[in-house]
Each structure stands twice: as C-alpha cells, then as structure tokens.
Amino acid sequence: MKIFFFPFFVLFSFISCTSLVEDQFPDTKRIPVLNGCLEQAETVKVHLSFSAKLSDSVPPPVENAQVIVESTGNSPDTLIYTKDGWYAGSQIVQAGFTYRCSVTIAGYPLLTAQTTVPESSEIDSVIFTDLVGRSEEGEKISAIEFNINNSISKKQFWHVRLISEGLKTWYDKESDQFVHNYAEENEAIYMLAGQDSILLNEANPLSLFSNKLMKSSSYKVKFYINEGYTRFDSDESYFIELRSVDEEYYKYLKQYYIYESATYTEIGKTPQKYPLYSNVTNGLGVFYSFSASRKELETTNH
Q1: What is the model's pLDDT at position 22?
Q2: For 272-299, what is each residue's pLDDT tens digit?
Q3: Per-residue pLDDT tens for 253-269?
Q4: For the chain: N or C, fewer Cβ within 10 A?
C-alpha cells in the first residue's frame, strides 16, 4: 500500500514584483482564464476563472458565464455550471472531431478556443526488463520498451505515462486523518535521449514527444523506472498509458516544464519567469485534447 499526498494544483496564477511593498495594490482588471482538457470517450468539461492578484489565495472562479461547445456534425452543447468554476456538458468527446469553445462573460470580449481530438495509438510488442542498471545510490533501474505506429504524412504527438491502480492512502487535511480509497496514480518514469535522434530533438520532458523527425512507419519507445521513486507492489496493477495528444497539449506541457524549472535558481540569482502557452482568444489558458490507450504491464516480480 502506498501513502501519497495530493499536490495543490493552481490552473493559472501570476506573480509580479515591485520595488515597494504596499498593503494595497491597484485594482487592475482581471483577465478571464479558460482551461479545458477534452478526453476521448469522456464528457466535455471546462474550467473558468479570472487571473489572480497577489491578494488572492486561489484564482476566483467565473460562476455566471455562458459556455457553448460546438463540434463536427453535432448540435451545440451548452455547458452547465457545477461548482468551483467548472462547467460540464452532455456530449461525449470523439476522436477525429474538432471542438470549438465559446465563452460569454459580462463585460468581456467573447473567449474562443478550439482543438481537434487525435486518434488513439496502439501499444505493441511490450518488453519489460527488470534490471538494466543501478543508480549512483545503488537503486535498481528497470526498463520498458514498446512499439507505436507513425503516420509520416501528418503531425503526431504522444505522451507516455505509467499508471498504478489499487488501494491508495492519503492524508485529508479537512478531516485530519488518513483516507483509504481505490484510485489511480501517475508513477515517476524517465526517458533518455542517448543516440535517439527523435529524443535528441526534444525539449524536456522527453516522455512527451512528436514525430517531427521520424522517417519510418513505426517507432520504439523506451522508458526507465527507478525503484527509489516507483516500486512495484504486488497488491496493485500497473498500466502503460500512451496518450495521443494534440499540438496544444504538446506546446503547453513543454512550456510549463520550462516555467516550473525557472522557479528553481541558484542562490544570488534572480528567477526567470516565462509565459505559459495559451491558445485562447481574448483570454488566457489552454484548450486541448487527447485520446489514450492502455496495456497492463506484466513484470517478473509482480
């Protein structure tokens, strides 16, 4: 059984610096933020908030917007507000369809964004190697390889993940106790560029990559697992998850990695802040999509 803590996730926040610290700050107009991740075979959901000020603990949600999502061959889907800035629709997301989101907020220009949901890619010829090396601390390194098909005639983007499924335990701050529940967890993995021309062309994280330099109709994916971060427990199931993602997903996560990395600097150096990628017209945020395929992993000690 694993014990883990859910990280606090903030969709978009902005930090500014001034030479003089004041108790009150100018009341600048907030910017609407639209975030939506459409997953194949799931219903449409988006989140709306305003850009945060220094005095805000979390970005304030937008509770009275009109949100309409239109897609290829379907009637418009008017999303219903649920809570905490979330709006939910009734349509099921389909691969190959283009979705356009329009948001009307009183006093602001119309927000728009669109995404085309990619077709899923299959995971083929999986090979698990229990021991391929040791870390500097002596921890065991395992490796997983599999093949994916590539279409040379179009852009493709993938995100590789390792998912564990089983009874999880985490600390609930509200109840001040540990809670047990059957759930999924995204496990830590990493990929190495080595002599791979595909990954040598990619910025971190390497688990998110494109077919930009692929010349053949198939590609071998290989990732590594350090037992110091991920251990295979006998009472849990493990799955390789291959996400076929759109270009917006790809650009956002690549830029988010740079954004997060820039916050950690050496002593005496000023941290650099990079803008986050956005494909939202008249606002901030990102509206993207993906399709996922999974294959259960069979290990020698599991």
Answers
A1: 43
A2: 666 789 999 999 999 999 999 999 998 7
A3: 999 998 887 765 555 55
A4: N
Q: What are the φ and ψ backbone dihedral angles of 255, each rounded to 5 degrees?
A: -75, -35
Q: Alpha-carbon distance 240 to 221, whole Å?
A: 11
Please state, in angstroms and rounded to a whole number, the distance separating the CA atoms of residues 4 and 184. 11
Fold of 29-117: Immunoglobulin-like (2.60.40)
Distant-in-sequence, close-in-space partners of 18: CB < 8 Å, separation ≥ 6: none
Alpha-carbon distance of 253 to 261, in angstroms, equals 12
**3-class DSSP string for the chain:** CEECCCCCCCCCCCCCCCCCCCCCCCCCCCCEEEEEEEECCCEEEEEEEECCCCCCCCCCECCCCEEEEEECCCCCEECEECCCCEEEEEEECCCCCEEEEEEECCCCCCEEEEEECCCCCCCEEEEEEEEEEECCCCCEEEEEEEEEECCCCCCCEEEEEEEEEEEEEEEECCCCEEEEEEEEEEECCECCCCCCHHHHCCCCCCCEEECCCCCCCEEEEEEEEECCCCCCCCCCEEEEEEEEECHHHHHHHHHHHHHHHCCCCCCCCCCCCCCCCCCCECCEEEEEEEEEEEEECCCCCC
Q: Where are the domains of the chain?
A: 29-117, 124-245+291-296
User: Which candidate, 77, 108, 110, 111, places its Cα nearest to that of 92?
Assistant: 77
pLDDT band (50, 70, 90) for residue 5: very low
- Which of 208-227 are b and which e, b meaning 16 or more Cβ less than 10 Å from the residue's Cβ? bbbbeebeeeebebbbbbbe
Averaged pLDDT score across all residues of the chain: 87
Beta partners for residue 290, in sequence order: 39, 245
